[in-house]
Write a structure and sequence with these properties.
Blueprint: H1 3-17, E1 21-25, H2 29-41, E2 46-50, H3 53-62, E3 67-71, H4 80-89, E4 98-103, H5 108-116, E5 121-124, H6 129-154, H7 158-170, H8 176-189, H9 193-204, H10 210-222, H11 226-239, H12 244-256, H13 260-273, H14 278-290, H15 294-308, H16 316-329, H17 336-356, H18 361-377, H19 381-397, H20 407-416, H21 420-432, H22 438-449, H23 454-472, H24 476-489, H25 494-511, H26 515-527, H27 538-552
Parallel strand pairs: 1-2, 1-3, 3-4, 4-5
Helix pairs in contact: 3-4, 6-7, 7-8, 8-9, 8-10, 9-10, 10-11, 11-12, 12-13, 13-14, 14-15, 15-16, 16-17, 16-18, 18-19, 18-20, 20-21, 20-22, 21-22, 23-24, 24-25, 25-26, 25-27
């Protein structure tokens, strides 16, 4: 842009921007002054300044700005990405607000994190007034054209939003691509899956587009078609490997399909591209722990806690998850110095929970429960019992009794402290309670099946896989030994026990009745007394038990 043209545009825009308000946030005063002068030179006369993330939040509570230029680096702990996420969560931005993150950062991790937070613009320092003018003009024109749509979008008025987008597309408006992408999300929000299919397929019939493929995958996932979603996502990531949110969706679909090791691998790929996302690291910690990979879980949990500090995402669950993961992983640390450091980290996490969430009774209870589990894992029985006693007292004093969402955590803690009978009774009651949520029932049932460490679960899972491979080859004796070894790690697991029973029965079909094999079957069923009629393995259990009774004269 030559100087003459720039000054003409600036003169035209001065009257447009004159009534707008702007906020400039930067830790350095000279940068704030420089950007303020640029804005005033473009006609924006009402420009406020602040150096901190807290200052941005306070300013936005006091007035609604039209333009915010926020540096990534701010004083006071919060960075620009965290500020933007918190402003959105607290609904302190106007739908038509133009939020620009400014940064001199060149780190891929930081840049990817900023882009994932989806500011309206991203400006690399240093930049000129001409560059700022072009970016503002582009955003201002779009904001003017889409103002009503963005307002409907912000307020969840999907029918009006859909109608306005369709009209803009039919008129072949300048912002048709934006409208099409917005339509996908609006259709998904209103479960209009046929419309998502039609829109995305129409675009894909012309050329491959990342948002259209992602829209189809989201539709399939929303309908519970995880396998179909995974196929689409695999194609999407082959064509557009930087589509970062596709990795997150694929990991979720794989997890829901029980393919946890693949889910962890996909999350690992996503984290290599963009590690500074709280939700992604937390998902990685959860999936890694389910796979028995305590070291990956620990690393992801530590990152989750770090990313939560000073952000809207900080919550007690992150700290408690870290404590539980440290409890399971500390024994595998060879260096005594590193182990001590790790245990201190868990103690500090508990202290932070007690300090920052001191007014929440449910958090106080969770903290005491986590302390009990932590001490139990270290073999500190007295300390574990003291923490559990404190938790029981807090629970007894809570209005309305123990919250339903803490029953599983309470039951796990009782079990870890050696109170097995009471723990099983509480968790079994939850499983059989018709008023309990399906999610809580599943969590309780899963723990009753495998009240063992993640490492033990991983060992049992690997041996079970070996046993199934031997069974497929009709190598029944070898399969039986593999299943029995697996049960040493996870003795109550229904699938493992029933695999052992089924293999014993297969061997006896081929070789004839053997007393020791019948005894193995009986012992397996005795280990499964906790399996209720609501359990997903109950039908199989009954079928195998009836077969044993009928053919081998066994009584229970």
């Amino acid at each position: 842009m030559d100087k003459a043209l720039f000054h003409r545009n600036a003169s035209q825009n001065s009257t447009i921007y004159a009534g707008l308000t702007a906020l400039v946030a930067d830790e350095f005063e000279n940068s704030r002054v420089s950007i303020r002068q640029m804005l005033q030179g473009l006609g924006v006369q009402n420009v406020d300044q602040t150096a901190s993330g807290k200052g941005v939040l306070e300013s936005c509570r006091a007035r609604r700005y039209d333009i915010i230029l926020c540096d990534f680096r701010l004083t006071g702990g919060k960075n620009g990405q965290q500020v933007l996420e918190e402003l959105r969560e607290l609904k302190l931005l106007k739908p038509t607000n133009i939020f620009i993150i400014v940064s001199a950062e060149t780190s891929r991790d930081v840049v990817m994190g900023i882009m994932e937070s989806q500011p309206d613009e991203y400006l690399s320092k240093p930049f000129t007034q001409a560059v700022l003018a072009r970016r503002l003009e582009r955003q201002f024109l779009q904001t003017q054209a889409l103002a009503k749509m963005k307002e409907n979008q912000a307020k969840g008025r999907y029918s009006q939003l859909i109608q306005a987008c369709i009209e803009h597309i039919q008129e072949e408006g300048r912002y048709t691509p934006w409208c099409k992408r917005t339509l996908v999300d609006a259709y998904l929000a209103t479960q209009q899956f046929d419309q998502v299919e039609q829109l995305c397929q129409a675009e894909l019939s012309v050329r491959d587009l990342d948002w259209a493929l992602l829209g189809l995958a989201k539709k399939e996932a929303a309908q519970g078609h995880n396998d179909a979603a995974i196929v689409i996502l695999e194609k999407l990531l082959r064509l557009f490997p930087q589509t970062i949110n596709a990795y997150d969706l694929m990991a979720k679909c794989l997890e829901d399909s029980g393919r946890l090791e693949e889910a962890q691998s996909v999350l690992d790929d996503a984290i290599k591209i963009s590690p500074r996302i709280h939700k992604r690291q937390k998902h990685m910690a959860t999936v890694s722990m389910a796979n028995g990979d305590t070291q990956s879980a620990l690393k992801a949990s530590q990152q989750t806690v770090r990313l939560g500090i000073n952000s809207i995402h900080e919550n007690p669950d992150d700290y408690i998850q870290l404590v539980d993961i440290v409890a399971e992983s500390a024994d595998s640390v060879e260096s005594s110095v590193d182990r001590k450091r790790l245990l201190n980290e868990a103690s500090q996490a508990l202290a932070i929970v007690g300090k920052r969430f001191a007014d929440d009774d449910s958090v106080k209870l969770r903290k005491s429960l986590a302390e009990s589990r932590f001490h139990a894992a270290q073999g500190q029985k007295k300390e574990a019992q003291n923490a559990l006693t404190n938790a029981k007292q807090i629970a007894a004093e809570m209005e309305g009794g123990l919250p339903p969402d803490l029953v599983v955590e309470y039951g796990k803690t009782l079990y870890n402290a050696g109170e097995h009978e009471q723990a099983e009774s509480i968790l079994a009651s939850l499983v059989n309670d018709q008023n309990s949520s399906a999610h809580l029932k599943q969590l309780a049932a899963d723990f009753l099946d495998e009240p063992v460490s993640s490492g033990a679960k991983a060992q049992a899972k690997a041996l079970n896989k070996d046993g199934l491979a031997s069974y497929a080859k009709k190598e029944y004796l070898e399969a039986i030994e593999q299943f029995k070894t697996a049960l040493n790690y996870s003795p109550r697991h229904p699938g493992l026990n029933l695999n052992l029973v089924q293999t014993c029965l297969k061997l006896m079909e081929a070789k004839g009745e053997e007393a020791y094999l019948v005894a193995e079957c009986v012992q397996a069923f005795q280990r499964l007394r906790h399996v209720s009629p609501a359990h997903k393995q109950h039908k199989r259990l009954i079928s195998l038990k009836e077969y044993l009774v009928k053919h081998y004269n066994v009584t229970f």
